[in-house]
Amino acid sequence: MTGRVEAVCVSGSDLLPLPGKRPSTTGIRKRPVGGRVAVLDETLDGDRQVNRKHHGGEGQAVYAYAAEDAAWWATDLGRDLPAGSFGENLRTTGLDLTGAVLGSRWAVGSALLEVTAPRIPCANFARFWDVPDLVKRFTAHGASGAYLRVLQTGDVGAGDAVEVVHVPDHGVTTGLLFRALTTQRSRLVEVEPALDVVPHKDRDKLTRRIAALVG
After folding, report:
1. Helix H or strand E encompassing 113
2. Which positions ≥6 away from 191 have C-beta within 8 Å?
3. How many whole angstroms from its chain centre is CA 203?
4. Are 202 and 54 in contact (CB under 8 A)?
5. Tens of pLDDT along 52-77?
6. What confidence score (pLDDT) does residue 65 get?
7. Based on C-alpha coordinates, what's the Rg of the chain?
8. Which pLDDT value is given to residue 53?
9. pTM
């Protein structure tokens, strides 16, 4: 399977202010950048994640969102949603990110990335779009995009092919994990075969929740 990178986006130093909130800024506002962008161990060069408890780092170094899913939202909301509008680092085309199997590996530019988890929407996302019920709507729709782990550093750029070079056979997708974490929590037991792929910071919590479900 092969897709393509439409745009590479980073926050830069111009962070979005959050008056009256802590932290007082967010890196959710990304903008496309030209040329080649270095893929570092836990981020893209020039990108910032302010709240590292929930964003960025190991297992969430890069966030991808599909152009096809962005087009659905643009129609639903009646507004343009250019690359970076979802806080994504990679705007992709030609790939089903909701159906992406956790642990799938993508060769992009000279980097190698691994699908690890869906993105769970937060209140800052709703504030960024100025859509008060966005978290509810985003959860209901379920096209979450995909977080990616960096297995091999390198560089990426708009126009790069995204070659899916490995797909595990357990069948646990980002869409399944998203539902298990939001609206269908009894399905969390189905995620167990992919626990060794999710971000390290989430593994113990998910393991305990699965244990509680199975008694």
Report:
1. strand 111-117
2. 172, 176, 177, 180, 198, 206, 210
3. 17
4. no
5. 666 778 999 999 999 999 999 999 99
6. 98
7. 16
8. 67
9. 0.94
